[in-house]
Amino acid sequence: MEILILHLVLCSESLYEDEEFDQRQLAALLVSKVFYYLGELNDSLSNALGSGPLFDVAEDSDYVHSLLAKAIDEYASLESKVAESNEAAEKVDPRLEAIVERMLDK
């Protein structure tokens, strides 16, 4: 079973990385959900960011609630580092900003 899941993740990640594949966002969403159910929230969030509008912030599920909480924590942490730093800080991923903004708009 673990080998099947690993194969699914690798195939889906390959599809997401293929810029000619027209369902890249769907592949990213699938990989995000697999990582979520494996307990890998960082990888799950990273792939959810790649799924664009297919990651439905209005969906009432543990998956979405968990990733929104993770996204908000990540966003707040990055913004806090920027505010505390006198040096040029790492820019917040615009995809992360977009998810937080979509969540606040719902």
Automatic annotation (TrEMBL):
Residue stretches making up the 26S proteasome non-ATPase regulatory subunit 1/RPN2 N-terminal domain: 13-106
GO biological process, one term: proteasome-mediated ubiquitin-dependent protein catabolic process
GO cellular component: nucleus; proteasome regulatory particle, base subcomplex; proteasome storage granule
Keyword annotations from UniProtKB, A to Z: Repeat
Pfam family, one: RPN2_N
Superkingdom to which the source organism belongs: Eukaryota
PANTHER family xref list: 26S PROTEASOME NON-ATPASE REGULATORY SUBUNIT, 26S PROTEASOME NON-ATPASE REGULATORY SUBUNIT 1
Name the UniProt record assigns to this protein: 26S proteasome non-ATPase regulatory subunit 1/RPN2 N-terminal domain-containing protein
